[in-house]
């Protein structure tokens, strides 16, 4: 029993001696209670603090930025689980790696890598999450198995890769293990199989949805590629459908189809090309200024709403249809009158033909009668002789 107590006392005594020795050795670099609210301050000189611990739990780690010093290297290299601050490169690492991701050669200046097997090997690069790599200056990779390999590029989500395209943004959803890659510099690429939604109000009542067409949009449209809260949409068949719900309309006013036709006559319809297109790409139609001058439709004279152009075309078709119906009725009346006149003419021609046919018979009878009379006279004169 006594032996056990003496052994324990001896161990405690050794620990106390070690602690006193340690404090004695670092005393030139330790200032306690010299700064208000500071529990511990470790300094290399009176003016340069390397470590500070404050009563509110805050702490400070300092150092000297000198990426060209060549040594010392990071506190430790190779695989493992650790957290460290590397002042010579102003870099921070925390998490677990299975290789050389946090060796000096893979640490960029002013870089940050946190998570599992993350690597920020370029200056000012950030890699967060799982198996993420930021390999070019000012690049950012976060999520699961993403790579930002273009300068100032961003890879986010799942299996996103900026493909060495600078200034690009790539986001991948988790719908497939395939990698989505940037195709060109300075581009944004998204894989969002559930749709891309942009809301323009705090209560999410306005905005635009881009989707595959398999789901009903936030605004209730189905089979849509682009749908809007206004009711306008682009269908999966490639048809743009304007909003035309009667419940969205008011201030109705009747129009004159003949007036529409008259106004259309004054509008030049020409072939032309947009200045932004190649000159061999041609279009046909009026200018917005001529259209607005004729009909005063739309918000200004710089554009023509498709709903207005369609409405004018339909009104013109209705007016021409009315003309056609009126002309058809007139033609039918004339045809009926012509048939009546034809019937009368046929009757008159038949009567005249009948009269012409009976004239030779009368003539024959008259001649026959005259001949018979002559014969009777001759017979009587012979008999009397």
UniProtKB/TrEMBL annotation:
<dbReference type="Pfam" id="PF13884">
    <property type="entry name" value="Peptidase_S74"/>
</dbReference>
<dbReference type="InterPro" id="IPR008640">
    <property type="entry name" value="Adhesin_Head_dom"/>
</dbReference>
<dbReference type="InterPro" id="IPR011049">
    <property type="entry name" value="Serralysin-like_metalloprot_C"/>
</dbReference>
<keyword id="KW-0472">Membrane</keyword>
<dbReference type="InterPro" id="IPR030392">
    <property type="entry name" value="S74_ICA"/>
</dbReference>
<keyword id="KW-0175">Coiled coil</keyword>
<keyword id="KW-1133">Transmembrane helix</keyword>
<feature type="coiled-coil region">
    <location>
        <begin position="324"/>
        <end position="351"/>
    </location>
</feature>
<protein>
    <submittedName>
        <fullName>Endosialidase-like protein</fullName>
    </submittedName>
</protein>
<keyword id="KW-0812">Transmembrane</keyword>
<feature type="transmembrane region" description="Helical">
    <location>
        <begin position="358"/>
        <end position="377"/>
    </location>
</feature>
<feature type="domain" description="Peptidase S74">
    <location>
        <begin position="244"/>
        <end position="352"/>
    </location>
</feature>
<dbReference type="GO" id="GO:0019867">
    <property type="term" value="C:outer membrane"/>
</dbReference>
<dbReference type="Pfam" id="PF05658">
    <property type="entry name" value="YadA_head"/>
</dbReference>
